[in-house]
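protien #1 (seq + structre)
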Amino acid sequence: MSDDTRLAPAPLEEDELRSLDAHWRAANYLAVGQIYLMANPLLTEPLRPEHVKPRLLGHWGTSPGLNLVHTHLNRVIKARGLDALCIWGPGHGGPAVLANSWLEGSYTETYPDIARDAAGMARLFKQFSFPGGVPSHVAPETPGSIHEGGELGYSLSHAYGAALDNPDLLVACVIGDGEAETGPLAASWHSNKFLDPVNDGAVLPILHLNGYKIANPSVLSRLPERELDELLRGYGHVPIHVTGDDPMSVHRAMAAAMDDALERIAAIQSGAREGRVAERPHWPVIVLRTPKGWTGPAEVDGLPVEGTWRAHQVPLAAVRDNPEHLRQLEQWMRSYRPEELFDEHGAPRPDVLACVPEGSSRLGANPHANGGLLLRELPLPPLEKYAVEVDKPGVTLHEPTRVLGDLLQDVMHATSGRRDFRLVGPDETASNRLQAVYAASGKAWQAQVLQVDEHLERHGRVMEILSEHTCQGWLEGYLLTGRHGLFSCYEAFVHIVDSMVNQHIKWLRTTRRLPWRAPIASLNYLLTSHVWRQDHNGFSHQDPGFVDHILNKSPEAVRVYFPPDANTLLSVADHALRSKDYVNVIVAGKQPCFDWLSMEQAKAHCARGAGIWEWAGTEDGSREPDAVLACAGDVPTQEVLAAARLLRRHLPGLAVRVVNVVDIARLLPSEEHPHGMSDFEYDGLFTADKPVIFAYHGYPWLIHRLAYRRTGHRNLHVRGYKEIGTTTTPFDMVVRNDLDRYRLVMDVIDRVPGLAVRAAAVRQQMEDVRHRHHAWIREHGTDLPEVADWTWDG
């Protein structure tokens, strides 16, 4: 169907028009009631100050527009038998969506104490933004929601993620004025170049322009219609406009726009699925322009409110103290004619509910919005198929992520029929050595393809776009609707989604306390191209701090892993992909890395999360170790093992214990994290009074923060990344940050009582090698031969 095709939908019958308006008015009434009232919900008596909440919280401005969208989605879902979901992007849109959920009955089914009667209405009103109640956002507590409209920018990417591999699903997405100005939202418009009309569902963006944000006009609302059309067409959409402030005219226009959009979507999908159309489609977008705070007070205290920024939150702010405000509130609420909308018991009248679909077709009851109900276990093959042989530790090398890529290839193969696994990343799948997956699935792509291109595929399930925000949003929407996935990213640049993952963790923490929310597959990050092997890209690509951010979050929801080799990466990835309701962060290298553990040993070590590598140390069990060399991360592990070998050679009488930590949360006390160790365990592993030299992948103060309450903390000395980076050799990076093997040996000598004098000559040798290193790399451009050619020969 061409962009210029204009369909002629049948006009609304008068009875249907009246019913739609009744539903919309009822939703508006309920939205206002939630913001203001704690008693007298049906206005059966004159409104008094004590009926009004002492603290007025909430946002009216966006609510009437959201109510309009919900009403008209009800109409088309019921008329066309659609399977539909809606993402409510505008911030603080809770009053509208809660109102509609209560009207359709899904809210009462979820929360039986909020019945569809006067008593239930009173509870609905009082609980909103009230202590012990519900938030003002469309939050996890809201039936039918997979998106919290708190932080703005993510609605459209969530919508596309939900539509992926859901060919029969329509995902409507309301984008608010403010959200439309964010960078993440702007990038999300390009998602239509990745949406497969054969295997994916459809996304219907509804750009709701009511003119204002909190205190300023919105950019897109002030663009001339032609300029806005050019922008949206440039994004690959066909705009359909609905503009007005007369309710009946807007109802007619909105119904026609919905019918037009859905006919276009049906034509696109049928053309693609029947093989009649192959070029990239141009999907419809509805541009809805209605006044901010529509149908609310036109003027308050002599100042205009409706259609201005003043309608954003609470238009009448002094209702308890100002009799005129109280009078205006009652007049406003009675303008919806509640006696026509609710019977004497407070139940919605049949005319109000005429447009509402039934059962799981209701927006608040669609199982896609409670994705754990649809989740199937991921078919993961036995790890032994991919395990690397380790006859002796520290002799052979493999690229850990390349090994993982073979496993992910088979997961892609195993899910090719059911299509419920996706790999996302910002143009880095091959760079991160995961390109084996292309044998099972190409990269999703609907735009032009040239002969030089590789692995682009209209039906592909590998998603690459150079926007970490969009990758994150796609995957979140995909997981929240009951599927599985993995996000592969350069370690330094995953910080771009710091705020997004924070919101997702808050969602998970909340849903864990909602028994009706079924667990979803975990959000899994693979962070590679990491700080210690970004020697070619330099300082700009060196930042290991994402884990610091993650470990600040809800302990029951976050997990961070540092597998030191290929087999441990396989074991950790297997665990993460099987898990539910977590955010798993896996930090692993893509460059050749020594193999330390067999598959059987790796599984046992990962299950422990932290353990002694007896073969690497020199303690014989007859006495406590003199020092502990601990490590977390692949490069720190190699440096610790090399330091242990030097100590074995130069100080053979020294009892050294080597401890490797895979699960970094193990360092926390058991009462602070589910994976934490008791003090008894911790002291048994690290000792209570011996020096511990800890080589850590990231910023060293994180380890101190995790272990600050431990008995032996005063003996803990951490080496890690000190924000010293450049374009240099791999070993020079660790030397510059004092994480190298020679520095670690010096640390042991400095901290074991009596060694400073006895081992002064050894310490001097270590210092001399560091000086020789600096001169060598400046002359040769490569690392010292004893470093570059090192293997474990213990």
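ok now protien #2
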Amino acid sequence: MIDAGAELDPVHPMEPPPPPHRPDGLTTAEVAERVARGEVNDVPVRSSRSLTEIVRANVLTRFNLIIGVLWVIMLFVAPIQDSLFGFVIVANTGIGIIQEWRAKKTLDSLAVIGEAKPTVRRDGAAAEISTHEIVLGDVIELGPGDKVVVDGVVAEADSLEVDESLLTGEADPVLKRPGDPVMSGSFVVAGGGAFTATKVGREAYAAQLAEEASRFTLVHSELRSGISTILKYVTWMMVPTAIGLIISQLVVKDNNFKDSVARTVGGIVPMIPEGLVLLTSVAFAIGVVRLGRKQCLVQELPAIEGLARVDVVCLDKTGTLTEGGMDVTEVRPLNGSDEAYVEEVLRAFGASDPRPNASLQAIIDAYPQREEAAWTVTDAMPFSSARKYSGAAFAEADGTASAWLLGAPDVLLSEDDTTLAEIEQLNQQGLRVLLLARVQGDDLDAPGAAAGAAPTALVVLEQRLRPDAGDTLAYFADQNVATKVISGDNAVSVGAVAGKLGLAGAENTLDARRLPTDPDEMATAMEQNAVFGRVTPQQKRDMVAALQSRGHTVAMTGDGVNDVLALKDADIGVSMGSGSEATRAVAQIVLLNNSFATLPSVVAEGRRVIGNITRVATLFLTKTVYSVLLAILVVCTQVEYPFLPRHLTLLSTLTIGVPAFFLALAPNKERAQPHFVRRVMRYAIPSGVIAATATFTTYLVARHHYSGPGALDAETSAATLTLFLVSMWVLAIIARPYTWWRIGLVAAMGLGFLIVLVVPWLQDFFALKLVGTTMPWTAVAIAVAAAALLEFVWRWVGRRFGM
């Protein structure tokens, strides 16, 4: 975490005074000169690991080191077939590198699409450029929702309010005036202006922030941390067990040295679940590629997993359930106002804001500015989500001065105003209503200006519903994910829109101004209602915290600056690609196609990854458990280890490696469950114990059955048959529920082992040959008994603890 405390004071006593403001910006020659001097914002924003880091992460692992050493030993002391496990690891690691490299390219290309494009003045003209093209002294324009991409000093300010909460933790916007510093990582919540860049590149705070915000990472994931925990315990078990096995096979038993080494290595290698980490990385990487094809930028890989665990989704209506645009359907004059005069006011209002929001843009579209404006704007107050209204003052065509407010009727009108009943009826139809009110005098900032404003007209707007929003809401309802619509608009109006889209509980609306401040009471209100209106940015943050206090995993979607605080605090923040730069910066997932309908794909991808990795982890850890237990039994009974590396390589490939790859990438719609380690070990430990017990029983019986030359090979073959059949039954359980391809997969693995048993050269290659009929059928009978016990244990664990 970056400590902002000491570094965020932009005005250091020893620093030079701020540069003089140049309204036209730098010239092309000056830009070239600064680039030549290196005064450019050239910090590379890493959206993924480099190829070197990918190779290092996949190759230089603890278990690869162990296996590599054992592989080299085996190449010297045993036939090549006992070294196959090394080639398998090389192939698996190569697959992991290739898959993550594909994910890197996808992530990098999407990051370019979603990159912020600040507006910079050069040679007297404004143009959008990439952040890495900004040079020292550039004049950068700011508007609502824009992120400050480098450090600088305000040069122009028009009611400019900047939110620095991402830097300081203070939620209240800061009013900026010319000469005030602005820090990269903050963003504009109201007003506009321009600032001069004073720090670029690695000197700017943005360089550190971007590195933290958009790094390709696999940390902070229950799945990854759970696997790390498992591997830690495996290491602790493996080391003493391996030492005991080495002593047993090399010292106690007077065997051929090379054969003893081979069997010792054969006992150590299967203890290592080397493919589990690799398979998890591959599953995550493929998830990124799949979502990338759907124009979904995953800025942090655990977000795929996190959204799959979400049980509450908080939606901002505007831009999520509705499209960005709106249409003016009606203007209703109030108190005898002249309709033509009202239209002139609205026409002038449209010219007062160079960066109109969706509501004002609808008014501009309905009442476009004439070529020669009859009214002149003398003052303007941009819309603020905290105020719920905007304002403008004009010099009318006849020279008369007037000032106006445009915003939420229930904020500008008193609670007993009769007009509210009329507005309520419109809201119940899902329409959005703005009130145009005239301020007494011409001072917009006068105390009580809003309270004393005279209602003049109602502007009725109709929002454009997203055609796919209804299906998405239905998907979440079907998946038992609660949906909460949180909006700054009127609660009844928002509820009507949600009702049109089929949101369950849309009739349960609550005005956030009546929301209790006590966190526990707020959490109760959040659970009981589905639609919330007139929500302030700080309330959105409090609502997320209240839900989290009840144990909910919360996702927050949004596209406006008023959503940033909640997006930052939610477990998963989801931003629209067309949203403000600030929301895209703090969100873990950015929907570049601006389609809320992409979210089910992200949820499905997360559930696929979590559900499938949980399944295949059971396969890997079952092998680890039976390998450790077999080694312990061998040490305790002072017998030869029953297997050579080639035997366990064959078993691992057919019962774990190949099936796990397909199962990890299969469709899976199971809802993600917590406690990954506990859930996996509940099944892996009894399965491994049963497999080891059955296998060692067969081995001991075979030792009494066979004698003479070649007895050890016959004993190994019988034990291998039992272990394969028990492992296949574990695979058959994990592959459920069966589909045609799952049945085919299990059958193909069984057929592969059968081919090894019947083809002579494969028998010799893998040193597997069943001798006689009594012992092979005994091995089968023991495996059948073990399979029945497996079924009983799995069913009991499922009933006792839940699947």
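The longest strand covers residues 151-163.
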